[in-house]
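ok trying this again, last paste got cut off
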Amino acid sequence: METIYLDHAATTPIHPEVSNIYKKVMDSEFGNPSSIHAYGRASRKLVDDARKTISAALNADQTEIIFTSGGTEADNIAVFGTATSMREKGNHIITTAIEHHAVLHSCKELEKRGFEITYLPVDENGCVTKTQVAEALTDQTILVTIMYGNNEVGTVQPIKEIGALLKDHQAIFHTDAVQAFGIVELHVDELQVDLLSASAHKLNGPKGVGFLYQRKGLQTAPLSFGGEQERKRRAGTENVPAIAGFAQAVEIAQREMEANRKKYNRYKEIMTSVFDAQHIQYEVNANHTEKLPHVMNISFAGTDIESLLVNLDMAGIAVSSGSACTAGSLEPSHVLAAMFGSSSTKLRNSVRFSFGLGLDVDKVRNAALMTTEIIQRLVK
């Protein structure tokens, strides 16, 4: 049975070039980058070269890149690190109702510690506006954290406009770009962000490595204590093989970005054209706004997400929903709930298809045809 992986927004297969670099470095360069001898210097060069590659992709300075264990740690440093370092200037934080849980759960924890959090609502396309942010701002606001592109529906937020709004305000501006980095061009000065999070495994790199861009001159309180790695901003010996692999993944992503964008948009067209031809009742969620090219969230009327996901998996098609099936219960997507309300049927019938390495036109068409067959069977 052919299996078709359409869950690249969850994680991506490692690129062969990245795998080769990862294995090569793991086998040959075991020195501690903090050591001053030749072994350490060889590892340090790999880390420094990776920092240059990644910073160039953002039009940033290499000293502004903090390597982390992934997007969650990067988000946590941004949120907790800023809240701690800015506490004397205020205790108000602005975010949105559709952030990744790495941000939302961090904000919930800060609420327990006495911080005031504003969770901006979104419209039916999953968007917030610059006006909403402006109206929520106070002289106590110390952090605004709004994701660049949503991981469930793909909605792109007006980060550049919000960045311009905050230019003369004390609030630090963070964007979780984990789903967007490597997919679309991100230039930190154009966006006017102070902090930006990313993760390697979302762009065909290894798991367990990410980074936080931190604008020069900005201070965040560290979350871990020990060594003086990453300019005293993140203690712990650097994961050299993963960092080298991350840099290779970034190089490939930058090189293939435009071609991938066209491919992913073509895949979306193929899937919807198959559904149209087979007279499937469906609706593309967040269809009237700018979205990431590789994410498509679709509501299939008359279906139930649990049975739909199980049947797709049995057919060899890997997709996901915004729900977590545990112990026989279904936790509705907080993103879809924020967009459509907690009573909407879309919370029970929406599927995320996401595209990436290893797909082609035939695989996408076959996946759409098999999806059609399953839906026609389930809605009878």
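PB: full thing came through this time. The chain has a mean pLDDT of 95.
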